[in-house]
Each structure stands twice: as structure tokens, then as C-alpha cells.
Design goal:
By secondary structure, the protein is α/β, with parallel strands linked by helices. It has one domain: 2-enoyl-CoA Hydratase, Chain A, domain 1 (Alpha-Beta Complex). It contains eleven helices and nine strands. The strands form two sheets. A six-stranded mixed sheet has the order 1-2-3-4-6-9, with helices on both faces. A hairpin with a 2-residue loop joins strand 1 and strand 2 (13-18). Helix 1 packs parallel to helix 3 and helix 3 (76-96) packs parallel to helix 4 (112-119). The longest helix has 21 residues, at 76-96. The two termini are 27 Å apart. Residues 214-228 have low confidence and may be disordered.
Length: 228
């Protein structure tokens, strides 16, 4: 697997760290594939009861790496076509994960990074966090299952506003509208995310978030959504 995604496991918590800090953790093909592979492995690891998705450097994830795409041998269109397949696989693995997934977000979470954070069950945001879908202002459709998760988190009217105007959303605004589970100081984001992850681990009734939500399809049956 690519070393652009690091995995650590402690006390039943798997911590995945996006580590392309020099590119604000923007996705290239190896990073997207590595994330999908790690998530697939963690889903079946019985020693892991929860997953925290974090990031190195000053940002959570800036989406797709335009510099990487522009240097792709078959051109940017082919680059993003291939990247989308790997990225959607990672999103699908999060949504199908039979254990809670917590996004530990600091700095920018834009484009694919925005959709990645929304795909998780809970989001702990640092004070520096800024969320932006960043698709529609470039004439693009929101990718990564964002059109599925966004209205389910904040309601249809607010989701339409986010999609139409593409304004940056601060950590406090995210908390107010339901995009954040909690907001903490940046230095505490990972610690608080791990603490949040341990709560379902200690409560067997919440350990399988997927099973708990089967009734309304909020966790399962989403392959069609992220692949469309």
C-alpha cells in the first residue's frame, strides 16, 4: 500500500492518517487506492471496533490533486476518471463499514475532502476547520456520495443552499447546522475523535452502526449512490 495513508491500531481503534501534507492531502491515484485498501482490511478486522480518519499537516483534504492530474500521461480527464473509481470505492467502504467511522477534521476539507468527511458517521472539527463542497462553483456535480449524505445530515433546504452558493462553512457554522458532532481546539481533534470512537466500543449496542441503521437504509445500499 502507498505510504500516503498511514495506519495505526491502539486499544481497538484503527487510526488512518492521510499523509500528503505537501499537497494538502489532495488525492492522487495511489492515495485513493491505499485508503480504499486500508478501509477494506479494517472492515473485516475483528480486533478493530472503530475507525478514526485523520490527516497530517495543515489540512484535512483538499480534494483531487490538480497538479497530479495535469501530469497524468493520458491527460487530466483520464486521471480523474480513474481517481473517481478508487475514491468511490473508499467512500463505499466507509458507508458499508460495520463499525463507526469518525472524521478528525482540521483545516480545509474541500471537494472530495468534504464528501469524505460527510461519509463518516461522526465529524470532530478543529477550530481551524473550513468545509466547502467546491464542486458547483466549478460547474461540477458534487461527487463522492455528497448529494446523498448532505441532505440527510442537514435537510434538503440547507443542502440546496450549500450546493447552490458553495460558501465556506466554518467549524462553528458546521456545528450549528448539523455537519459537525463537536468542535474542539485543533490540538485536541485527534484525541477527542479517539475518545468519541471508544464510546461505541464500550457500548455493544452501538458498536455496529451499520446494523443499527439498516431499517432506513441510511448506512447500507449506497453503492448506487456513489457510483452514479
Amino acid at each position: 500500500m502507498s505510504d500516503s495513508v498511514r495506519l495505526g491500531i491502539q486499544d481497538g481503534i484503527g487510526v488512518l492518517t492521510l499523509d500528503r501534507a505537501g499537497a494538502f492531502n489532495a488525492f492522487d491515484l495511489p492515495m485513493a487506492q491505499s485508503l480504499a485498501d486500508h478501509l477494506t482490511s479494517l472492515a473485516s478486522d475483528r480486533q478493530v471496533r472503530a475507525v478514526v480518519l485523520s490527516a497530517a499537516g495543515k489540512a484535512f483534504c483538499a480534494g483531487g490533486d490538480l497538479r497530479w492530474a495535469s501530469s497524468f500521461p493520458r491527460g487530466p480527464a483520464a486521471a480523474f476518471h480513474e481517481l473517481a473509481g478508487r475514491f468511490h470505492l473508499a467512500i463505499t467502504q466507509i458507508r458499508r463499514m460495520p463499525k463507526p467511522v469518525i472524521a478528525a477534521v482540521h483545516g480545509i476539507a474541500a471537494g472530495g475532502g468534504f464528501s469524505l468527511a460527510l461519509a463518516c458517521d461522526f465529524r470532530v472539527l478543529g477550530q481551524s476547520a473550513a468545509l466547502r463542497q467546491a464542486y458547483t462553483s466549478s460547474g461540477l456535480c458534487i461527487d463522492g456520495g455528497g448529494t446523498f449524505t448532505l441532505p440527510r445530515l442537514i435537510g434538503l433546504a440547507r443542502a440546496l443552499e450549500v450546493a447552490a452558493f458553495d460558501r465556506p462553512i466554518s467549524a462553528e457554522q458546521a456545528l450549528a447546522i448539523g455537519l459537525a458532532t463537536k468542535v474542539v481546539d485543533d490540538a485536541q481533534v485527534l484525541e477527542e475523535s479517539a475518545a468519541l470512537a471508544r464510546e461505541p466500543v464500550k457500548k455493544a449496542a452501538l458498536a455496529d452502526i451499520g446494523s443499527a441503521n439498516d431499517g432506513d437504509g441510511a448506512r447500507h445500499g449506497r453503492t448506487e449512490v456513489v457510483s452514479s
